[in-house]
């Protein structure tokens, strides 16, 4: 039996889950108990990946106001690639930020910064309402955030 802690501790780039484990059920004696810990990557509890691992997939966010200059992505694309496009609210690529301009990520990183050819960040789009399109090929997207 496992009894998890009521809280999750976060340190560095890991979430720590502490628990107590028993080697028997409630009514069985004698039994032994021990304390354990399990970890997952930062924001690594839920992820999005292609339904069929060998086929590419994509997802588009809801429109949001871009209140920052840079994008940070928590993703594992070490066996494939992940590309980010910036779209208008009608899901059309913005000039210079389309899929053809995206430089794909092909590594595992918690704070990866997507880039586009001839573009240095998102400062030119600050204040606009945009959508993001994530193209995934054998990759997992855990989280993203916009930085000031």
TL;DR?
With 148 residues, the protein is mainly beta. Helix content is 0%, strand content 47%.
Features:
single chain; 148 residues; mainly beta; 2 domains; four-stranded antiparallel beta sheet; 0% helix; 47% strand; elongated
Describe this structure in words.
With 148 residues, the chain is mostly beta strands. It has two domains: 2-41; 57-147. It is 0% helix and 47% strand. The chain has no helices and 13 strands. The strands form four sheets. Strands 1, 2, 3 and 4 form a four-stranded antiparallel sheet that branches. Strands 5, 6, 8 and 12 form a four-stranded antiparallel sheet that branches. A hairpin with a 2-residue loop joins β2 and β3.
Strand percentage lies at: over 45%
- Which oligomeric state applies? single chain
> Distance N terminus to C terminus?
45 Å
Give the C-alpha Rg.
20 Å
Order of helices and strands: EEEEEEEEEEEEE
Number of strands: 13
Contiguous uncertain segments of 5+ residues: none
Taken from the alpha-carbon principal axes, the silhouette is elongated
Number of helices: 0
Q: Residue share in helices?
A: under 10%
Class of secondary structure makeup: mainly beta
Number of domains: 2
Overall mean pLDDT: 95
Largest sheet: 4 strands, antiparallel
């Amino acid at each position: 039996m496992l009894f998890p802690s009521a809280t999750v501790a976060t340190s560095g780039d890991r979430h720590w889950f502490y628990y107590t484990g028993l080697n028997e059920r409630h009514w069985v004696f004698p039994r032994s108990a021990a304390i354990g810990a399990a970890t997952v990557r930062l924001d690594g509890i839920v992820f999005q990946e292609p339904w069929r691992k060998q086929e590419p997939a994509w997802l588009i966010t809801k429109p949001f106001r871009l209140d920052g200059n840079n994008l940070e992505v928590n993703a594992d694309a070490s066996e494939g690639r992940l590309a980010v496009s910036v779209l208008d609210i009608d899901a059309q690529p913005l000039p210079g930020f389309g899929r053809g301009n995206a430089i794909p990520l092909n590594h595992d990183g918690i704070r990866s910064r997507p880039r586009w050819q001839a573009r240095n960040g998102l400062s030119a789009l600050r204040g606009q309402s945009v959508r993001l399109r994530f193209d995934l090929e054998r990759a997992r997207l855990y989280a993203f955030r916009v930085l000031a």
